[in-house]
Each structure stands twice: as C-alpha cells, then as structure tokens.
Amino acid sequence: MNDKQSHSPNAVIKILALLSLVRWYNVLLIGIALFLTSLFLLRGDFTFQQVLTDTRLYFQIIAVSLFLQAGYLINAFYDYEKDIINRPEETIFGRIVSKRTCLNAYVILILLGLGVSFLLGWKIFWANFFFSFLLWYYSHRLRKINFLGEITASLLAIYPFVVLTLLYPYVTQTFILYGGFIFIVTFTREVLKKMVSLKGDLIVGEQSIPIVLGIKSTKYILLLLMLITLGLIFYFLPGVKHDTIFYFFIFISCLLGGALYKLYQAKTPKDFDKINTIYKIIIGTSIFSVVLLK
Questions:
Q1: Which domains does the chain have, with CATH numbers?
Q2: What's the pLDDT band for 117 if we cut at 50, 70, 90?
Q3: Which end of the chain has the least Cβ crowding within 10 Å, N or C?
C-alpha cells in the first residue's frame, strides 16, 4: 500500500511534465483557430450546421493536435541543453521526463495522428504526413539554419490552415491576406525568440540571426517586419471601417506601436522577451478575431 502511494505522485508529476512539454495550451488555441477558420472563413456554400456537424473537421483538428504535441516533444528533445541555459525555471518539468520517454511519446502521437488522418482520405493523409515530417525535420535540422529555420517555423504555423482547404475549397482574398498577416507576425516572433535565447544559442554553438548578423542588424529586421505588419493592417482598414473588425485592427496597431517603442529601447534578452509577450497577445487575439471577418 505504501509503495503504491509513493509511486503515484511520481506518475502524476510525470503526466503533468508531459502536458507541460506538449504545450497543451498552444495546441488548444490552434485547434480553436482551425475550427473558427473553417466556420467563418472557409465555409463557402456550407451552412453553419453542416460545418458544426462535420466529423471530418473534428478528426482533422484531432490529427493536427496530435502532430503538434509530437512536434513540441521532439523540439524539447533536441532543445534540452539550450532550454536549461535560457529558461532554467521553466524546464523543471522537462527534467522529470527522460529523453527516451519523450521519443516514445513522440512515436505514439505520430502514429495516432496518422491513424486519424487515414480516416480522412489519401489527400489529407499525405498532407498530414508531410506536416509531421516537416515538424521533425525542422527540429532536427532546419531550425539550425539561419533565416530558413524562422521561415520554416512560420510556414508550419499556417500549414494546418492550408490543409483545411482540402475540406473546404473556398479560398478568398481575405483568407490569403489574413494568412499573410499571421505569417509575418509569427516570423517576427520567431526572430524575437532568437534574441531571447541568444545566450543559450551562443553556448551550444547554434547559429541564429542575431549571432550571425548582430543585435543591431536584427533590430532593423524586426523594425522592418513590424512596419510590414502595420502596412497589412492599414491595407485592411479602409474596407472594414464600418465593421467591428475595424476596432480589432486599431487595438493591434496600438500593440504594435508599443512593440516598436519597446524595440527602440531594447538592449537585453529580457527587453526582447517583453516584446515577445506583446506578440503572444497579438497572436492570441488574432485567433478569435476570425469571427469578425467576412
């Protein structure tokens, strides 16, 4: 009886550690984003009721969620040493789960994701298989290549939404422009993350934009990306000035203004982490703003 009691807390802690590693909150947000995108941007001639009761959509969201969790696990596997340097307080759970457990859980999640994808037909199966392969190859190789890593991470962020067009082939200009907006915002955040993890990248010998180009040049790149994002927003504004989404874009513009001000002052990784937090808010609110788009 005592043995069971002594082992059960360890099991609970390991489960909590795995949940932390798979970033369940990010996966949940992306699942919500996929659902809302299908309902409000890609629905086309389908009715709300048809989309709400479409089991294919739910299976696809489950498959993507499984692949994303697997992606976070393999990323944690490759990033273990660097994360201990960059985020010692946030990697306590990560140290509880062994690398072998990470790999085993990764394989199980990938197989489950492919199994669910098989139920959706060959087109989506192969699209999802490619997604799972890219997630692994990004963690294994691409993220270590300057610029290509950040671009790939940003493309992986919008890839599941592109796959949705296999279910609902109703692609509008709004969908494309919004996808471009999300890509630029995600790419900016990827560069910011490299500024935050600069110390760890230097110690483990990983090449990144700020290491190769320097902090000053990277700040100019971030400035350009922020101005491009504002340009996209200003492109949207005239067409939505009488809609509720107009106020969302004003809110995002204010956040970007704050990010630009912080960027001007930024000198340390903590400064760039504050800008990163602003971008987390931008991405989070952008997910729910889909319901306001036409």
A1: 12-171 (1.10.357.140), 173-294 (1.20.120.1780)
A2: very high
A3: N
- How many C-beta atoms lie closer than 10 Å to residue 26's C-beta? 15
Give the global pTM. 0.86
Q: Largest Cα–Cα distance of the chain, in whole Å?
A: 69
Q: Are 155 and 130 in contact (CB under 8 A)?
A: no
Helix (H, G, I), strand (E, B) or coil at 168: coil
H-type alpha helices, the chain? 2-21, 24-40, 48-52, 55-86, 92-96, 99-118, 122-140, 148-163, 173-196, 198-204, 209-213, 215-240, 245-265, 269-289
CA angle, 110 as apex, 74 and 197 as ends, to 5°?
20
**What is the per-residue pLDDT across 15-42, written as a single tens digit (0 to 9) for each?**
777 777 888 889 999 999 999 999 998 9
In angstroms, the CA 132 to CA 156 distance is: 10
How many other C-beta atoms can be found within 10 angstroms of the C-beta atom of residue 34?
22
Return the higher-pLDDT residue of 11 and 7. 11
Indicate the burial class of 125 (C-beta count within 10 angstroms; 0-12, 13-18, 19 or more).
middle
Angle between helices 55-86 and 122-140 (to 10 degrees): 0
- Enumerate residues 6+ apart whose C-beta is below 8 A from 20: 93, 94
Mean pLDDT, the chain, integer? 85
CB neighbours of residue 91 within 10 Å? 19
Q: What is the pLDDT of residues 156-165, one digit of tens each?
A: 999 999 999 9
Region class of 45: left (phi > 0), else alpha (psi between -120 and 50), else beta: alpha
Q: Are 66 and 116 in contact (CB under 8 A)?
A: yes
CA separation for the pair 20, 92 (Å, rounded): 10
d(CA 212, CA 6): 50
